[in-house]
Amino acid sequence: MTRKLIDDLVRRNTFPPIEVPGMDTLTGRERETLALVGQCLSNQEIAATTRASAGPWTAWPATDVAA
């Protein structure tokens, strides 16, 4: 029942727009990527859609850690 309701809502696209603080500071590419993440695409699918690298991603090393 829940799945049918969700599928119906997605199909009708009845989600109201919402204001998200900071969205106006994102670049077009960042908004595009965020929209693809919202569609549950994998990193590989997003990379293929945006012609970007899919990783592997690593965290930046900590360079100013107090001793």
Q: Tell me the Rg in angstroms.
A: 17 Å
Instruction: Give a short account of the largest sheet.
Output: none
Shape: flat
> What is the beta-strand fraction?
under 5%
- Supply the helix-strand structural class: mainly alpha
Number of strands: 0
Q: Report helical residue fraction.
A: 40-55%
pLDDT under 50 segments (min length 5)? Answer: none
Number of helical elements: 3
Please state the oligomeric state of the protein chains shown. single chain
Measured between the Cα atoms of the first and last residue, the distance is 56 Å
Q: What is the H-and-E element order?
A: HHH
Q: Provide the residue-averaged pLDDT.
A: 78
Provide tags for this entry.
single chain; 67 residues; mainly alpha; flat
Describe the overall structure.
The protein is mostly helical and 67 residues long. It has a domain at 27-52. The protein is 45% helix and 0% strand. The chain has three helices and no strands. It has helices at residues 2-12, 28-38, 43-50.
Helices and strands, with pairings:
Elements: H1 2-12, H2 28-38, H3 43-50
What's this entry about, in short?
This protein is mainly α.
